[in-house]
Amino acid sequence: MTPRRRTQLIATTCLILSMGASVLLLHRVDEIRPRAVLEDVLYISSPKMVKRTSLGFDGLMACIYWTRTVQYFGHRHYERARTYNELAPLLEITTALDPHMIPAYQFGASFLAPAPPNGAGEPVRAIELMKYGIQNNPDNWHLYYDLGFVYYTELKDYKRAAEVFEQGSKVPNAHPFLKLLAAQMAEHANDYETARMLWTATYESSTESNIRQNAIEHLRSIRVDEEVTRLQQAVSRFEQQNGRLPTSLWELAAAEHLRGIPVDPDGNPYILSFDGQVQVSKPEDFPFITKGIPPDYKPSGPPKFHSKS
Amino acid sequence: MSARIVHIAANTFREAVRDRVLYNLIAFALLLSGAAIFIGQISIEIERLVVVNLGLTAVSLFGVVIAIFIGIGLVSKEIEKRTLYTVLSRPVRRWEFIVGKFFGLAGTLVVNTFFMAIGVFAALLYVAHKFASPDAFILVALYFIILEFLILCSLALLFSSFSSPLLAAVFTFSLFIIGSFADDLRGFAAMTHGITRWIATGASYLVPNFSTLNVISAVAHQQAVGGQLILQNTFYALFYTAMALSGAVLIFERRNLK
């Protein structure tokens, strides 16, 4: 072996060994070092300042901030966090950098508005965000739809929701269901029916898989809420007629002439507690239900999603 | 254009290629393909926006760096290597040398931008699966970026005609930054009074206005770019380039090279 060849061999070996050692060491250091809480740090909080420092490349900066927002929300949501302090500032910066970035408004509102742990519980800021979006994109009917949605689902402000849906229905090329929703809001007689209509519209008008999946989960939960309400009414009826609670759902089904034991959308039978409360057997499979939740149930881990209803 | 200018331009282009300037295309390709593949997994519904924004921003920034760092050495390197004396001892006028150098560097950047543009459209096709007619406005954004390069090349040549490479780099890069804030400078001028207003207004018109040449965000949203803007930006960039090149020629003509 020539001296030159030998040097090359030694240098190559040294390079590979050093690289491997440095990666291993960094891995060990990461294990012993406390994890930095980067998601709660926003070095520049002023949207104007970020826009200035982007040197005119604000479109790319908006994409970076939007990706950061998605990562921040996803991480906090996965951990079932109760606070999302940086979510609203991140969305403000993103939309200030690029006022035409529609996904930032649509998803941003759905991140901000719902109560924790499904969202930041800031419906007022979600409404501000949507209004800013409409101001900059007045011809986009989706934004009116999403704003009306927040008014309806989070604030139960049917009057405002009806107004916004009505405004949206006048936008060129608006989906016809906005007119229907405006009328439904004005009546707000059947909340389950309205909610079903909204989530069905969301499912049908979106091509984004996350939105469609979320809509499916809500539709499944609405079905459970509706069934639990109906069964609870049947239990009350039974009690009035017989002077006691039904001992089982079999007894209730026989008294109500039901075809069999009532089951949830997954085919699992509902449970009747000793004090006459109808409960779902697997509440973790229905992350958005408001009825039939066992009193001792505490959600753990990330919410489950299903691909079909 | 005289044959001498063409020869100098061709040599400048050849030298840039020999200096492995076009290697930046590899970094660009990696950046864009990485973004096109991975961004869909870490973000929501902005794959197309990212490809256009990142692609055009990278085209612009890579080109700016090349324009500045090659441009500042075009004259000083020739003096340092003493090749300038060989060139000028032939029947080549000094202004022809400057103009030839300018076209050589501009040509390098146009070729570079051409390959990057292919990369941008390929990445766009990958994420969107098809082209839409508003995607043609990406070509306008690329054209504006080339106009930006022409201005920067001429400025780099202007500064390198009388100062050291380091100072020329500092001056050119500073003007690039200030030019990116030209609209803010104009806004600042409008807020002031008296002599400050005159000075600020004068400065805002004197520095190159790069913000008017930046339509990246608009084309990323498939918004149209008006024909008037294209026409006027073209004339603006050509006049500004001519102004800076004339300054470079004037200084270089008077420079004592002994």
Describe the structure.
The complex is a heterodimer of chains A (309) and B (258). Chain A is flat, with a radius of gyration of 26 Å. Chain A has a domain at 40-214: Tetratricopeptide repeat domain (Serine Threonine Protein Phosphatase 5, Tetratricopeptide repeat, Alpha Horseshoe), CATH 1.25.40.10. Chain A is built from twelve helices and two strands. Chain A has helices at residues 3-32, 47-53, 58-78, 87-97, 102-112, 123-136, 141-153, 158-169, 177-187, 191-205, 209-242, 249-255; strands at 271-272, 278-279. Chain B has twelve helices and no strands. The two termini of chain B are 29 Å apart. Chain B has 258 residues and is mainly alpha-helical. Chain B has one domain (3-253). The radius of gyration of chain B is 20 Å and the shape is globular. Classes of the chains: A mainly alpha (309), B mainly alpha (258). The A-B interface holds A 52, 55-60, 62-63, 66-67, 70-71, 98, 100-101, 103, 107, 208, 210 and B 39, 42-46, 49-50, 52-54, 57, 60-61, 177, 180-181, 184, 210-211, 214, 216-217, 220-221, 223.
